[in-house]
Probable inorganic carbon transporter subunit DabB (Alishewanella maricola), 455 residues
Amino acid sequence: MQTLLHLTSLKLVLLSLVVLLGIVIWRYSATALYGEAEKARFMRALTATLAAVMVTLLSNHLVLFWLGWVAISLSVQQLLLFYPERPRAQLAAHKKALSARLGELLLALAMLLLYLEFDTASINELLLQLSQTSEASAMLHSAALLLVAVALLKCAQLPLHGWLIQVVEAPTPVSALLHAGIINLGGILLLLFAPLLSLSPLATAVLLFAALISTFLAALIMTTRVSIKVRLAWSTVAQMGLMLVEIALGLYTLALLHLLAHSCYKAYAFLHSGNAVNHYLAAQLADQIEPSAKHWFAAIILAALLTGLTHFIVPLASLASSVLLILAITVLLLPSLSRADSHRLQRCLLASSYALGLLTLYLLGKTCLSAIMPTPQGSTFVADVLSSLVFIILFVVAVLLRYHASQPALNQLFIWLNAGGYLDEWATRLTLKIWPYKATTPQSKTASSQLKEPL
């Protein structure tokens, strides 16, 4: 058993997250599905999924890791089809199955290449030899590219993202499990095999460009959606893309922190989605005040000062991470600056205190996780600048769409984004052409059962 399973500090953190999410989702499911005839089947599939995730994380053998990876997909498939009579649930499960089978095939090829290169199936031994390798061979570059492809598929990056948007047809606990846990496996895979990824600039570049494009489009598409669950689903695609960008930039500590924070937030958001509707309606009824140029300037300057203070205490690893912090704090501070009334000063102080609290949590999290998942080296200058520019352009376009969507050019962009860029339609047609299926309906099931009954 010692050769098949192994526990490290990184795996311990990830297992703690799995246990926490598992307990919360299990208890929520036991209550939400009370009275369901198939509740026992759902709970068995949920247990199998959580067990498969734990085995995969603990595995120290390539074959065991792959088997656990496959088991996760198969058990999740059962959860997605909890309501098998729903056509959209069937389509989402069908597309997810095709994506999963492709990912499993690519993962098997990557592990075969690693085994042939190092003549060992022990993951610890592989990582040790990788850390001592200074230059990657063609076989290692190929293995790294395959792992990048697996991560992009698992994280539902564009254009193969449609299944994740459509799984809202499944029960809410399934959405929480997927968006808070299963979807993170792509990032976890790359973090576990970070020594291999760091040896392949080609694989890193492919990951960076694919994740940047997916993050940019998904974040903009999210702003055009009204449905709470659909917005959360598009948010997950964007957040997973951002996490993959951080990994591509070599910001492993930040990526792990992002993974943990996103998992906890998405579990809460989906399990609390009923109340989120009330919050959204309240926000829609509130007065929409467009910030002026001076408000934007003041918010950006104050955000830059707070970020500079953070950098002074714990140096930020890249320009891109600094830009992300500045933009996030700007959005947080802007509403308090925009509304001109007698309570503006109190709101500004409260928003600034909240921003400082979040930055403090960021510093604490980064400090604690740096020993578990250190960032060995900074990203290249070109990749850092490119990512920063994409984040800034994304921020500007999102602001224009929010306040000036009536302009002709922006209105056309809004319509295109609201349709998801028609990417899922294209991917669905291609999927059904490669692997067609026939949706079953309650009527067809009843008819078939009547035919089997004796006359």
The chain has two domains: 9-279, 287-403.
